[in-house]
Amino acid sequence: MCIAIPGKVLATDGTTAQVDFRGNTVNVNVGLVDPEPGQYVLVHAGCAIEVMEKEKAEELADLFMELEELA
Amino acid sequence: MEIQEVIRYLKEYDGPEIKLMEVCGTHTASIFKSGIRSLISPKIKLISGPGCPVCVTPTAFIDKCIEYATSEHHILLTFGDMMKVPGTNGSLSDMKGKGAKVELMYSPFEAVEKAQANPEITYVVAAVGFETTAPAYALMMQQAVANGVKNIRLVTALKTVIPALTWICENQQDIDGFICPGHVSTIIGSVPYEALAQKYEKPFVVAGFEAEHILAVIYDIVRQLEAGEHQVKNLYSNAVRNEGNTKALEVLNTYFEAGPAMWRGLGVIENSGLYLKDTFYDGGSRGLDKDMELPAGCSCGDVIVGKINPDQCPMFKTKCSPMNPFGPCMVSAEGACGIWYRNK
């Protein structure tokens, strides 16, 4: 599915960012967006596809966790 | 407007029957999770569209992947959802059990790392997906080229939704409006739907994934239809810019070009596939059109285009289940039949 999961950017060198997904830190390619540490990004297939507002990102993260359980 | 008013309006709707297609499998799952069908009038029908890239990938693609996985000095990398899709002589999962070299990946960038670490192996990436996923493969190519990595190939079954929506507008004229996919639109934006809305005079509205977002989109489309309008709207503006992600579109354009692609249930659609421009890295992706004969009684072709709902197929829950799938829509966790089975 085209699910994209939001996570919080901890650090970035402009190419790869360390992104926190509920306590798991994952390296994410940020070639398509330009996030600052502290911002949220929408991540699909190891790639950040958009920067998101914190509040919206957290709502989405909850929803996709529930949808994953359905799948 | 409060969500309760939206729900009341949709519940009490008593006009002509309306058929809306949700193009994205994640919308299908969300509609089930939140019980949206029970919240709206039975006169508003929600039809699941071809929103699962796995389900529309033809058998010839799986066969090509297996060919690589069983060749010396080659390893096939794939996302997990392709593992159980049947090829002519079994699925990737079956073949892995027989010794084929198939490894799961979580992101295409792993291919570059693996290829650099093991130069004697050629890593073949099974690249399946819509526009949401395709830019990740373009960035992977960028990394491979920049690092001079030569032992990578892509077998692509990457598809684009606008040509498929055009096909549906031409062939399924009873669909009144489209709930446009959220994360595909993050990449392509809402602008590409404009030409469709104008030509076919149907509303196209980009939706988020929460129940209230989807209800708001259904409400918007119903009101547009009542007013005789056919506008494109973006109601997922916190993740979708009208112009899309321009960097993603640029990198896609750098590495890929459009070509004909086979969609199960729809046939070959011109310009609906994305193929590597650099033929060195392409693992023979063009012309993989041969598809399985669907088993007698299997209605996947009709399900994919929204002619029938999964529970109208005579095989559904009788001969076809996720444990013993008959057709591709049941095989994939993303498929309409699989979603209906688990939730209905």
Write a compact overview of the structure shown.
The complex is a heterodimer of chains A (71) and B (344). With 71 residues, chain A is α+β, with helices and mostly antiparallel strands. Helix content of chain A is 24%, strand content 44%.
Explain what you see.
Helix content of chain A is 24%, strand content 44%. With 71 residues, chain A is α+β, with helices and mostly antiparallel strands. In chain B, the strands form two sheets. Chain B has a six-stranded mixed beta sheet with strand order 4-3-5-6-11-10, with helices on both faces. Chain B has a five-stranded parallel beta sheet with strand order 2-1-7-8-9. Helices cover 38% and strands 18% of the residues of chain B. By secondary structure, chain B is an alpha/beta fold. Chain B is globular, with a radius of gyration of 20 Å. Chain B contains 15 helices and eleven strands. Classes of the chains: A alpha+beta (71), B alpha/beta (344). At the A-B interface, strand 5 and helix 1 of A face helix 2, helix 7, helix 9, helix 12 and helix 15 of B.
Order of helices and strands of chain A: EEEEEH
- End-to-end Cα distance of chain A: 10 Å
Fraction of helical residues of chain A: 10-25%
- Could you state the oligomeric state of the chains shown? heterodimer
Shape of chain A: globular
- General shape of chain B: globular
User: Helix and strand string of chain B, N-terminal first?
Assistant: HEHHEHEHEHEHEHEHHEHEHEEHHH
Strand content of chain B: 15-25%
For the largest sheet of chain B, list the strands in their spatial order: 4-3-5-6-11-10
Total helical segments of chain A: 1
The end-to-end distance of chain B, rounded to whole angstroms, is 31 Å
The main β sheet of chain B shows up as: 6 strands, mixed
Over all CA atoms, what is the radius of gyration of chain A?
11 Å
* Largest sheet report of chain A: 5 strands, antiparallel
User: Could you give the count of β-strands of chain A?
Assistant: 5
